[in-house]
Amino acid sequence: MLFFPRPLQDPIRGRPKEIPHNEKLLSLKYESLDYDNIENQLFLEEERRMSPMGFRCLEISRWVICGLIGILTGLIACFIDIMVEKLAGYKYQVIKENIEKFTEVGGLSISLILWAVLNCAFVLVGGIMVAFFEPIAAGSGIPQIKCYLNGVKIPRVVRLKTLVVKVIGVICSVAGGLAVGKEGPMIHSGGVVAAGVSQGRSTSLKRDFKMFEYFRRDTEKRDFVSAGAAAGVSAAFGAPVGGVLFSLEEGASFWNQMLTWRIFFASMISTFTLNFFLSIYHGKPGDLSNPGLINFGRFESDSVAYYYYEIPLFMCMGALGGLLGALFNSLNYWLTIFRIRYVHRPCLQVMEALLVAAVTAAVSFTMIYFSNDCQPLGPERNEEYSLQLFCADGEYNSMATAFFNTPERSVRSLFHYQPGSYNPMTLGLFTLTYFFLACWTYGLAVSAGVFIPSLLIGAAWGRLCGILLASFTPTSPVGAPHSGIVRMTLSLTVIMVEATGNVTYGLPIMLVLMIAKIVGDYFQEGLYDIHIKLQSVPFLHWEAPATSHWLTAREVMSSPVTCFNRIEKVGTIVDVLSNTSTNHNGFPVVVQVLDSDEPAKLCGLILRSQLIVLLKHKVFVELARSRLSQRKLQLKDFRDAYPRFPPIQSIHVSQDERECMMDLTEFMNPTPYTVPQDTSLPRVFKLFRALGLRHLVVADDVNRVIGLVTRKDLARYHLGKHGLEELQLAQT
Amino acid sequence: MLFFPRPLQDPIRGRPKEIPHNEKLLSLKYESLDYDNIENQLFLEEERRMSPMGFRCLEISRWVICGLIGILTGLIACFIDIMVEKLAGYKYQVIKENIEKFTEVGGLSISLILWAVLNCAFVLVGGIMVAFFEPIAAGSGIPQIKCYLNGVKIPRVVRLKTLVVKVIGVICSVAGGLAVGKEGPMIHSGGVVAAGVSQGRSTSLKRDFKMFEYFRRDTEKRDFVSAGAAAGVSAAFGAPVGGVLFSLEEGASFWNQMLTWRIFFASMISTFTLNFFLSIYHGKPGDLSNPGLINFGRFESDSVAYYYYEIPLFMCMGALGGLLGALFNSLNYWLTIFRIRYVHRPCLQVMEALLVAAVTAAVSFTMIYFSNDCQPLGPERNEEYSLQLFCADGEYNSMATAFFNTPERSVRSLFHYQPGSYNPMTLGLFTLTYFFLACWTYGLAVSAGVFIPSLLIGAAWGRLCGILLASFTPTSPVGAPHSGIVRMTLSLTVIMVEATGNVTYGLPIMLVLMIAKIVGDYFQEGLYDIHIKLQSVPFLHWEAPATSHWLTAREVMSSPVTCFNRIEKVGTIVDVLSNTSTNHNGFPVVVQVLDSDEPAKLCGLILRSQLIVLLKHKVFVELARSRLSQRKLQLKDFRDAYPRFPPIQSIHVSQDERECMMDLTEFMNPTPYTVPQDTSLPRVFKLFRALGLRHLVVADDVNRVIGLVTRKDLARYHLGKHGLEELQLAQT
C-alpha cells in the first residue's frame, strides 16, 4: 500500500475501479490550501484595529510557537530513539543468546524461526496500526509534507491520530528489523506537531486552549508546518541548517527572512532538546556535542584529506549512484503500481508487511550463516551484538555486523571500522541484498523512511569501492545512491556535512550528490515525485513547463463559472454548494447594476468554507433586520470552524430560509487578483506559485468574469517526451 | 566618502545642496529593475518558436555561464590573495628590518615614519583610484549588491571599470595596513563578473561575443548576479553553502530550485578554482582541503567540545556582541553623516583615507612600542613577521602579532596560539583600539570590507573572555560583534561553520549570532541597512509594514498617469519622454473605441527604454507603409541596446517625423498586472515583492487607468517609532 490510502477507489471500500495506468491522471479529491483569499472586510477591520504593540505580540507568539515546536519534536525524536534502542536491544539479545546456544549443537533453524517470529510480531503491530487505523501514516511522510508545503491539502495528514500511529509504527518497523530508517517519519511528525501547536487546540481531543487564534488560517499554518518539518530534519540528523534548507528546497516558494529565522530557531531548539535528553539518557548529562538521531561518529581530520586526482573517482561514483538510484526508483515504480492494483485491502497490506519482515529475517540469517568472513574481535570493535557463530574464539562474523544490527549502527560501523574489517565479498553481497530489500520495503503499509537504507547501501558500496581501489574514501560517495533516489542536493549536502561533523568533505560530497542527481534525472524522476505523481496530486512545480508560452489563460481556465450575486438568495447558494457534480471551492461574486443593460461586474471572491460558516450561523438579511440574531458574525466564527468545515449536507436550511437573502459584501475578498484572458500560462503560473493562489479570476476588459483558473488547471500541463502533455482529470 | 558617490548632490560637481538630515528622504535617482514587463508580443513569438531542444540549450548555457562565473571569481580571488600577500609581505619585511636596525641604537621614530609612509603610499593609490575614477567601488560593495538583488539599479555598480578599481583598491587598502578585510569586495567582484559574463559582451570594451543574447534582460541578469555574489562569498570564505545562503538571505524573493542549484554550482566551482590555484602557488598542488581566502586553520576535535553550562555564557557574549555592534553602527552612522556634509570632494576623501592610514600605523606602532608583553618564540609560533623589539632573545612582542600582520593572519593567531600566548592587557587594548580604527575606516573612499575587522574584534575579545573565565572557547563568540554589526544570521552561521571546518560549534555559533542580532536590532539597524537608508534608496523590505492594512492602492498610487494611445503620435511620445520634470519609466497604453463615449481602456504597458529603441529605429506606421524601412524590428534590437539605453536627448526626431504615428501593439506588455483601487497595501506589496514588479497599474471596474504604483511609492512607507511614517521624496 502506498502512502496515500486507496487512491482512485470508491468511497465504499471495495474493489477499486479499473485504473487506466496508461493514461495520466489528475485527481480532483485533493483540496488546495489558500494563502490569499482570507483577506475580507472583517479581516481588514481586525488588522486596522490592531496596534503596533499587537503586531509585536503576534510576532513574539510566533517565536514562542516555534520554540514549542522544537521542544516537542525533539522530545518525540528522543522517545522514538530510546524505544527503538530498548526494543531492538532486547530482540537482538534474545536472538543472540539463542543462536549462541544452538551454534555448536545444531538446530540453528530454530533461531531463524525465532528471529523471523520476533520481527513479524513487531511488524504486525505496526502494520495493523497503519493499515487499519490511519493509512496516511504509511511510508516516510515526506511526500505528504512536500505536497502540503506545495499547497495541496492531503486529507488527515496533520492530525494527532496520524502522529500517534506514525510514532508507534516507526518504532515497530525499525525494531522489526525491516530495511527502514526512523528519520523520514520524524519530518512528518515535526509537521504534525507544528500544525497542532500553532492552532492552540486539538480538534481530535476536543480541547481548545483559546490561544493563537490569529494563526488559524492556511498561510500561517503552512509557515509553522515548514518550521516543524525543519525541526524534524534537525532532530533526525542533528542538522539545523540542513533542516532549514530542506524546508526551503521542498516547500517554500516565497522566501521571507523573518520566517527563515523562525524556522532556524525551531530547528536549533529541536536539536538542542534531543541532544540534552539523550545526553542524560546515555549518562553523560550536558555533553551536547553529539546531536541528532543518527550519528556517524567523529571523523579524525587526518583521515579525511583528499587530493584532486580523487575528483574523477568521486564523479564516477556519483554517476553510478545516480544509475543505482534510477534503478531503485524504476523497480519501486512498478512495485507501487502492482500494489495499487492488487494489494489494496488492509489485511493484504498487513500480510505483505509480514512477508517482507519474514523474508528480511530469513535472508539476513542465510547471509550470515553462509558467510565465512571472520574478523578478530578487537577492543574497538566491541559492537554490542557481534555474533561469533562458527568463527574461532575472539573472532566475530563480519557479515553479522551489517545485518544483525539497526541500520544506523551498521552505517556507523561501515564508516569507522579499520581497513580490513570487511572483505569485498561480504560487502558486495550485502549491498546487493540490501538494495532489493530496501526497494521492496518502501511503500509497505508501515511507517518508515528510505534515508538510512539508501545511506547504508551507499556506505557499503563506497567502502567496497574503497577496498577495490585500495584507497579509503569514507564519506563522500555515501550519499550518492540517496541523491539518486530522492534527488535533493543542497539540503542533503548540508545534512551530510552536519551529520558527519566535518566540513572538509563538503566539496566532494556536493560533487557526488550533484552528479548523482543529474544522472538520475536523466533516467527517472525522484522517488517522492514518482509517488506524488502516482497519487495524481495536483502538484505545482517550480516553473511552468518551458514550452507553454503559447497557452493563455483562455485555454487553461474553467468556463463557464458559477458566480453569486453580492446579495444572493440562500436557496441558490445551498443548491450550488450541494451540487456534487461541480464541487467548486471558490465563487466569484458579481454585482449587477439595477435597471441597466451593463453586464454584471466582478466585485469579489468567496470560498465554499466561508459560505458554509455563513449558512451555519444563518447570516441572512431578513433575520438581521428582525433583530433575531443579535450577534454580528465575527472572524472568530470562521477561525473556530477552521480547518474542518462541516459539509453542506450537515447544515439544515428550512424551506422558509431558502427564500431569505444573504449579503456577501463583508465576507468576500473584495479585491481578488484578476488577469486578462490573453495572459500567458507562465505568467499565470508565476502568480500562483509566488502568491500561493487557489483561484484566479479571468476577466475581460469590462471586468466581467469569463473564467476561473485553479491549481488543478495549471497542474494538468507538464512537459513530456513529445512536448507539452495534458493530464486527464480523474473521474472519481 | 560613502559607497554611493556624492549623494543628493548636483550633477555638476560642486557643493552639495543643504541636506535636510532631519527629514527622511527617498531619492528618485535610482531606477528599478524590471522582471516582468519584458513579455511583449515579440518575446512571446520567440518563445513560441523555440523548440523543447532550444529550451534545453538555454538551460545548458545557464549552467555554463555559472561555471564561468565561478572560475573567473575564483581567479580574481586568487589574484587578490597573492598580490596582498606579496605586497604586505614585502612591506612588513622592510619595516621589520628597519625596526630591528633601530631597536638597539634608538631612533625608532624613523621606523614609524617609514611604516606610516609605506601605508600611506598604498592607501594613496587605492584612494585616488576610488575617489577620482570610480566612487561606486568604495566600501565593501555588499550594500550595493544587496540593492541590486532587491531590484534597485545603482548606477555603474556592475561595470568592468568598477571591478578593476575594486580589485586594485582592495589590494592597496589591505596592503596599506588599514583595518579592513578583502572578503566583502569579493562579493561585489563576483557580482560584476556575473553581470559581464552572462551578457556575453562588454560595453566598456565594445566587444560583443554574440553569445547569451537571450539573457540580456533584468530577470536573467539578476539571477546571474546572485550566483556571482554567492561565488564571491564562496571564494572569500571557502563556504559554498554559505554563499548560497547569503544570496538568498540578502537577495532572493522568489525561490526557485533550479536557480538555487545553479548558484550552488557557481559557488562550488569558485571555491574549487581558488583552492586549486592557491595550492599550486603554495607549492602543494592538489591539496584541496583548505579552501577560501580566509582560513581559520584546523581545529582539533578534542579541543572543541562544550558543555551545557557554557550556554548562558555564550548567550551573554552574544548579547554583549550585539551591544558592541549597535555602538559600532551608531558611531559609524554619525561619522557617515559628517562625511556626507563635509567630506564630499574627492581630494578631501583621499586626504581622509591618508590620515586614517597614518593614524593606524602610528597607533599600532605606539601600542607595540609601549607593550611589554613578551612571549617565548616557540617552534609553532614561528610567525613570519614576529617582532623582537625590546624582548629578550628567543622572545617576541605579543602585541605585534596582532597589529603587525594582515588581519586574516591575526585572526588565525588568536584562534590557535596556545593558552598563555597573550596577556589580558594586550588583548583588551587591542580590542579597544581596533574597534575604533575599524569604525573610522568603514566608509572611507577605499575598497574594503568590514567582515574581517569585526571578526578580529570578536576573536580578540572572545579570547580575552576565555582568559578571564579561565576557559578556552575559541570560535563561537567570534561572530558576535559581526552579527551585531551586519545582522546576518543564517548565512553567517554557515559561513563560520564552513570556514572553521568544524560542525561541533554550529549550535553555539547560531545561538550567539542570533542573540547578538536580536540585541543589536533593539538598538540600531544593521550597518548595511543604515548606509542604504542614508543613500535614500527605494529599498523594499520583506514585508509591508505591519500596521499598513488601512492603506490602499488609492492612497499609495501616483495619479494622474501619463498614458499613451495604442497608436500614438511620435511628437507626443518625444515630448513626454523629454519632459524632465516627470521622468516616468513606464506608461500604460490605452485604447479608445472610435466614435464612442466609452472611456479609454487599459490594453498594455510600455517602458521608456522600449519607446527609446522604437524611436531610434524609427518604427513609424507611415514609414512601414512606404516600405522605406524593410526590416521589422526584432527582439535583438532591444537586447543590443540593453542595458544602456540612450537618453531621449540623443535621439533626433525631425519635425516631419513628429507628425508620424507609432503602433505600440507589438512592443507593449499586453497583459500587465492590475489591481483594483481598494487593494490593501500589504497585497500590493506582496505582488511587487513576489513578482519583482516595477509598475503596477491601478484600474477601476471598467478597466480605466486611474493610477500607477511604482516601487518608490511602496518604499515610502515604513514603520517608525510612532507608527507608520512616510518618507519624503528628494528634490534632486
From TrEMBL, chains A, B:
Pfam families: CBS, Voltage_CLC. The keyword Repeat applies. Belongs to the chloride channel (TC 2.A.49) family. The chain crosses the membrane at residues 63-84, 112-133, 163-181, 224-247, 259-281, 311-335, 347-370, 422-443, 450-472, 492-516. Keywords: CBS domain, Chloride, Ion transport, Membrane, Repeat, Transmembrane, Transmembrane helix, Transport. One of its GO terms (molecular function) is chloride:proton antiporter activity. GO terms for cellular component: lysosomal membrane. Residues 668-726 form the CBS domain. InterPro entries: CBS_dom, CBS_dom_sf, CIC-7, Cl-channel/antiporter, Cl-channel_core, ClC. It is found in: Membrane. SUPFAM superfamilies: CBS-domain pair (SSF54631), Clc chloride channel (SSF81340). Coiled coil: none annotated. It is a multi-pass membrane protein. It comes from the Eukaryota. This is Chloride channel protein. The keyword Transmembrane helix applies. The gene is CLCN7.
